Amino acid sequence: MSRTEEQHHGRAGTARLRRLIASLLALVTAVTVTSCTTGDDRPSIVVTTNILGDVTREIVGGEADVTVLMKPNADPHSFGLSAVQAAELEQADLVVHNGLGLEENVLRHVDAARASGVATFAAGEAADPLTFHTADDGGPEGEEGQPDPHFWTDPDRMRKVTGLMADQVIEHVDGVDPGTIRANADRYAKRLADLTTWMEKSFGRVPADHRALVTNHHVFGYLADRFGFAVIGAVIPSGTTLASPSSSDLRSLTEAMERGGVRTVFADSSRPGRLAEVLRTEMGGGIRVVELHSESLTAKGAGADTYLRMMRANTTAMVTGLTGT
Prior knowledge:
It is a single chain. The protein is an alpha/beta fold. The protein contains ten helices and eight strands. It has helices at residues 3-40, 50-60, 83-91, 107-115, 155-172, 178-203, 221-227, 247-260, 274-282, 307-323; strands at 44-47, 65-68, 94-97, 119-122, 212-217, 230-236, 264-268, 288-292. The strands form three sheets. The chain has a four-stranded parallel beta sheet, with helices on both faces. A two-stranded parallel sheet has the order 5-6. The protein is globular, with a radius of gyration of 27 Å.
């Protein structure tokens, strides 16, 4: 091959290489544009707790992206956010949170998102919240008159919240189909009504003189109010797990348990029954500690990975713990 031919082939090869590079760049640009238009432009809802996250996903379906900040088996009173998660709050179309002081380390980020113009929905505040009672009535001392954030233990209140949440999604999240959101919410509300009926039937097996609850902290006020239980007390005499019991608190609780003949303590799985175990020493043994999933869902497949499964698992465990069957 002559020198001229070699130069010609060299120039042709370079031209082909340039065309190939140009084609690859065009392909990358097209993929990037497609990704931006189909991903980044989708409506976004950020939810603080995993219980509300599950319910939100049931209502929203595929109409928007739903990001849940709280991991499985976490404690809603103490979990925190990364810088990336905090930024997600301020970029959302809607933020759904429990409110009433539950997410103690997250509320400042919710407030910041609201201040920046993001729509927020406090589910607990929309659920006709109950207030904590005085210690003499079995409620947390020092929190008398303060709202109880644990509304989800009453499925009827959760059913009310689903309708209000659907309203918020339709109003604030552009691009969703209102008809689909309404249909999803109505379908889920029917499942919640069925849950209430099933819980009533299940709790009907617990005799009137066994309907007394002791927990590791005050979390079942709404359930007690809805299904006719009495809250005798809690190992941590507070509505938050971040408090600590004193020796006098434990003494008052054990005395109340002795008077009421209560030998079962229910401890949330996100806070192991370490504190409840103390009662075994205080009361000389004979105390049964039953774990519940009262404030957080479990990982997928672990028995309480949806709100409906959590409520059914807790009901079964409570009936068994209170009846010994």
